[in-house]
Amino acid sequence: MRKIAMIFAAFMLILSAGGCGAQVEGRVAELTNTPELTADSPEPSAPPGTPAPEPMSTPILESAAVSMEDYSGVFAIQGDTIYYINGFDNGSLNSMNADGSNSHKLNSGYVSWFTLSGDQIYYSDGFSFFAMNSDGSGQHKLKDDESGPVLIAGGKIYYNNFYDGFALYCMNTDGSDQKKVTDDMALYMIAIGDQIYYGGASRGIYCMKTDGTDKSQLVSDAPYNMILADGWIFYNNQDDSYSLYAVKTDGSDRHKLTDEYALSMNIAGDRIIYSDGNDHKIYSIKTDGNDKRQLSNDNAEWLVVSNGRIYYSITGAKIYSMSMDGSDKQVLVDLDSDAYKNVTYKIDASIHTGMPEYRFVATGVTVDSDNWMVGYVMGLTVYDENGLLLISKDFSEVDNDQVTGNAVFTEMMDTMGLHVTDVNFDGYKDVIILNSFSGAHGNTSYDCWLWDPETSQFVESTSFTGICNPSLDPMKQCIYSSSEGGAGIQSWSICKFINGVFVSTNDLECETTDDANWSFSEQKLVGDQMEIVRCVTVQADDYNAALAAAGYINDDLWQINNPRWYTAGGHEYDQWLEE
Questions:
Q1: Per mean pLDDT, which range of 115-124, 213-222, 380-389, 483-492 is the poorest?
Q2: CA R_g for the chain
Q3: Distance (Å, rounded) from C-alpha 383 to C-alpha 396?
Q4: How many distinct structural domains can be found in the chain?
Q5: Contact 202/220 with Cβ under 8 angstroms?
Q6: What are the CA-CA distances from residue 336 to residues 106, 341, 349 (Å)?
Q7: Do residues 560 and 551 make contact, with C-beta atoms less than 8 angstroms apart?
Q8: Of 462, 492, 510, which closes a domain?
Q9: For position 113, which CATH number holds?
């Protein structure tokens, strides 16, 4: 199964979220990749908010990779043309007029980010750099390197090299003459003449020449998003609850503007247009930190200001524009309207010997794409032999401007994980269907209805949904569960059906460190409490050797090498959900 190939963004996320069911939300970082400014650009002169003698000629973020998340580098404007990545069409790159007309595809392959420079588009499929003309012609590979969005300055491409600890490299725009600029990882880069201003994984905002010399630190704050306008750098200060700060490009006059946590920042005249990092609504504020105004109640994933309008997306399903005061909201393009097709999967099965067959029907919507794209399980209905309705479940929900359901990778949308099987080992078959199969780890969870022979009804079991990557063992009448929680943590559980609910009776967790130490902690259910029964730390070169050294491969209880333990879903594991 192909994973979304935002290698650079994934590195910064360092997925610390837990295992099954956990969804990583919140913002990672904002990448502002502004148009290159010339040496004639205004030098630091007046504090933010002081009117300049002449208005700025170019909005700061007109050709910007606006964020480091899933929408990283997905939208840019050049003149009257909009360029965007269509996440509902295999991540292809598209263009359209600024009014939403004449939308057409520029390429058919997956694009993880792109950057505009003149009549060229530079982009990545997550594994290599490519370039093409702005009309989609002349597509060619520049180099096999993995990186996040880049800076184009002085005929050079500046990027963080995945294969060298994300050090900052540069190369010619034809892919030649690759060289290291600095060992630093530069998440936010802005070029003015022969100077690059950047901030990143290490503390501080720095300035250096484009060849990497004359490096100096402007501030020691930890920035989280950074833009530059009229000789001032605006940034969120992680050391002060992400409050908005400003500092001159020579490092002087550092001061706090406001407590606002401003994301997707754009400068327009003397105002900053941004999405609030807490409520994600769209606001504007003066560059001196005063006169905050709410422009829209929409939750903006990203926003870009150009041509006197604000362009933004809420969920990625649609692209909107509105006037600078928040009026005249328009839908420019509806990306998901024709993207999905309806799918139905049916099973006719008897839940017990001598009982008639019932019909089990799963419904959903999916896209014609690679397996890493997400479809949605929308409903489950179950009918008895006379066509009477036994279960009618609607999973659909409104997510801002998009109707979604249970998120499931495309590879499982043919069956939607529908199984009629005995999960509580009482001799009667039950029904399960995927609740979730998505995210970075690809963990699975299932909604479940148990057959109650006393009432002749299906009864929902919410406790089963909490079992991550379930695998049935009818012989031992238990369910195995395993997951990867990120940051070198692996966990296993053995679950049983006790007093009407599924509970974990045994837990095992393994955590590894950089010095090849593997720490195991084992717990057991005693009464109604989990108690630690064993803790052991071993040294080993790899995962399997650590399991063997700790005694968990051939252990009668765990047998971790049993294929029933799986940490990512897919059809190959369906066999462990059948009797």
A1: 483-492
A2: 27
A3: 20
A4: 3
A5: no
A6: 18, 10, 35
A7: no
A8: 462
A9: 2.120.10.30
Q: DSSP 3-state assignment of 543?
A: helix
User: Does residue 577 surpass a pLDDT of 50?
Assistant: yes
Tokens standing for residue 274: 């941004």
446 band by pLDDT with thresholds 50, 70 and 90: very high
Cβ(16)–Cβ(25) under 8 Å?
A: no
Type of residue found at 228: L
How many CB atoms are closer than 10 A to CB 155? Answer: 12
Three-class SS state of 422? coil
pLDDT exceeds cutoff 70 at 260:
yes
Q: Tokens 């084992």: give the residue.
A: 522
Q: For strand 471-473 and strand 271-276, is the pairing parallel, antiparallel, or unpaired? A: unpaired
Neighbours of 46 (CB within 10 A): 13
Flag whether 43 is in a domain. Answer: no
- % helix, strand, coil for the chain, step of 5: 5, 45, 45
Cα dihedral angle (424, 426, 430, 435), rounded to 10 degrees? Answer: 0
Per-residue burial over 231-268, b = 16 or more CB atoms within 10 Å of its CB, e = otherwise: bbbbbbbeeeebbbbbbbbebeebeebbebbbbbbbbb
Residues 137 and 184 grouped into a single domain: yes
Q: Judge whether 161 and 167 are in contact, CB under 8 Å.
A: yes
Residue 544, Cβ neighbours under 10 Å: how many?
12
The 3-class secondary structure across 259-309, one letter per residue, is CCCEEEEEEECCEEEEEECCCCCEEEEECCCCCCEEEECCCCCEEEEECCE
Report how far residue 189's alpha carbon sits from residue 64's, in angstroms, rounded to the nearest whole number.
11
Domain residues for 373? Answer: 340-462
Phi first, then psi, for residue 558 (nearest 5°) are: -95, -50
Q: What is the 3-state secondary structure (H, E, C) of 39-99?
A: CCCCCCCCCCCCCCCCCCCCCCCCCCCCCCCCCCCCEEEECCEEEEEECCCCCEEEEEECC
Euclidean distance between CA atoms 514 and 83, whole angstroms? 42
Query: Does the pTM of the predicted model rise above 0.85?
Result: no
Q: How many CB atoms lie within 10 A of CB 404?
A: 20
Same domain, 275 and 374: no
Consecutive H or E run containing 10: helix 7-13
pLDDT digit string, tens, across residues 323-376 = 999 999 999 999 988 888 999 999 999 999 999 999 999 999 998 766 678 899
- Is the same domain home to 290 and 264? yes
Contact call for residues 332 and 343 (beta carbons, < 8 A): no
